[in-house]
Amino acid sequence: MKKYVCEFIGTAVLVLFGCGSAAIAGDILGNLGVALAFGLSIVAMAYVIGNISGCHINPAVSLAMLINKKMSVKDFIFYVVAQVLGAIAGIALLYLIMANCMRLDVAVQGLGANGFGDASRIDLSMWGAVLVEVILTFVFVYTVLGVTSDEKKSSVAGIVIGLTLAFVHIMGIPLTGTSVNPARSLAPALFQGGIALEQVWVFIVSPLIGSAIAAFTYKYLNNGEKKEEPAKK
Predict the structure, then answer these.
(1) d(Cα 83, Cα 56) in Å, to the nearest integer?
(2) Which domains does the chain have, with CATH numbers?
(3) How far is residue 136's CA from residue 129's CA, in Å, rounded to a whole number?
(4) Are the beta carbons of 162 and 183 closer than 8 angstroms?
(5) Which tens digits make up the pLDDT trace of 66-119?
(6) What sections of 54-118 are H helices per DSSP?
(7) Cβ neighbours of residue 127 under 8 Å, at least 6 residues apart?
(8) Which residue in 47, 56, 229, 233 has its CB near the most CB atoms, within 10 A?
(9) Does the global pTM surpass 0.85?
């Protein structure tokens, strides 16, 4: 149960501070600032809950771990439930904060939902959004798999994963707002409704596809790799 509670808390923190930065201070922070908010949230949580749950806080990461047999089906299901509930809790807190700010309006600032077409800063098409999210999730999840598979890298894993999430956000924010995380996308869409809710399927399906590709790629290229033995004299 501790693992699931940690996934709930971690996802809530990620969504509250990531989506919150985008909704409340996006104009001030810019793309880089919002990207760092998401990335630093991962870094903070990784060093608090990483040794308990692995700090997935993302159904796409959990799917990759399942495919690579690093977690059971039971844990996968409960992880995803905890992540979705945590994301909803994070957005609920953000909504309450914004509702009590006279100069903030959820209808105007939004809640950091993802989108394409009219909901994209550069009017990215639906298929463009699918391609972007698959690519960004592939890069992110592939990095997660690589850095968490080597115990020698455990001390820096949280930093590497956080920085990777930040850099995929730098490219993805102007395109789709960057999802790479179905739970992070579903929660604000549920609260905003409208076009955000209509389009959210893209930001649920695409990250899962990107995650699966990353998992199978890692399984083929990296799992079972052998180090070269020194030549015998």
Answers:
(1) 9
(2) 2-221 (1.20.1080.10)
(3) 10
(4) no
(5) 999 899 999 999 999 999 999 999 999 999 999 898 788 787 778 989 999 998
(6) 59-67, 73-99, 106-109
(7) none
(8) 56
(9) yes
